[in-house]
Model the fold of this input.
Amino acid sequence: MTTAQREPESPPPATLVTAREHLEEVVAELRHEPRLAIDTESNGFYAYQERVCLLQISSAREDFIVDPIAIKDLSALGELTAAPHIEKVFHAGEYDVLCLKRDYGFAFTNVFDTMIAGRLLGAKELGLAAAIRIYFGVTISKKLQRADWGLRPLSEAHFHYAQLDTHYLLRLSDILRDQLREKGRDGDAAEACARLADIEPVTKSFDPNGFWRLAGRSRLSPRQTACLREVFLLRERRAKSMDRAHFRIMPEELMVNLAEAMPENSEALARVRGMTPYLQHKLGGAIMDALARGRTAEPPTEPPRSGKRRSNRERLLFEDLRQWRKAQAEREAVEPVVILDTKCLQELARAAAANEPDPLRSLSALKRGRYGEPLCGLLRPKQNS
Done:
């Protein structure tokens, strides 16, 4: 293990940016930097419509915290994220990249992710706090990990917590990059980070048939399922009108319990497992109305499942591939996903089961060169069976 480097108790406070003019000045300064560390804080744990609430940027000399709630136009930052001459360093950056693309339409080039590097190196602990503790001897408190970053004003403790998410990233990336080169994994990192830069957000919309997928729904009768649908729709309306995360309106387990019990009065409602006095006070009347609608409504019909069913041959191939991946990961002392991700295994199994001429076509040149021979041995005999 690398010896922890001695660090000061706390870095100087970050520069807080709350005005567009100030942001443009910061961008003018940062556009000449070769590397920037980036992180975001969002409010998806609290809000119906998640949004980026804080954006942290660190250069080799200074830490910045940008407030997107105070600054409506962040387009100037898009110049930095898209600039090919500036390396953007993240830790577990998939979420950050997706959020910044979704909210601001930013494009990304030249990305490096320290969690991807840690995974390729076989790190046992992949969290940023663990890496900072191991390499810099600094312990970071995670008590604000689930903070509501959409609230204003934020405290100094919030800003300090956010600052530490990027303050060490550039130096951490230097250490991990050297280790990747030593282990011959730098090509893997480049490939994985290029994919990270290219990922695109998927627009999520409310699915009125989502209640069919709730755990425990299968034990309900048609009438109870009609009640579940009404409670499910009630929760959606309330979450949207109050701009609150769905589970903060009503947990999924409680919705199923309500539909199963179908209480007919407030006393019976109070006895439903998971019902709290607070929730009954706030939503009791609306819940009873929803259940009443469910009792008289036409029971819903489950929609047909989308997607083509996998053949038995494809399922067997996928299981063979999964077992090979597990054994290969143990030989290389890395997580299985480092070898090939599950989506890739599924595509290999599909292509081989369909007797495609080149079932390895979806593999990158790097992966094909490294694993092509064993994969061919695993897949080709089954093509001719």
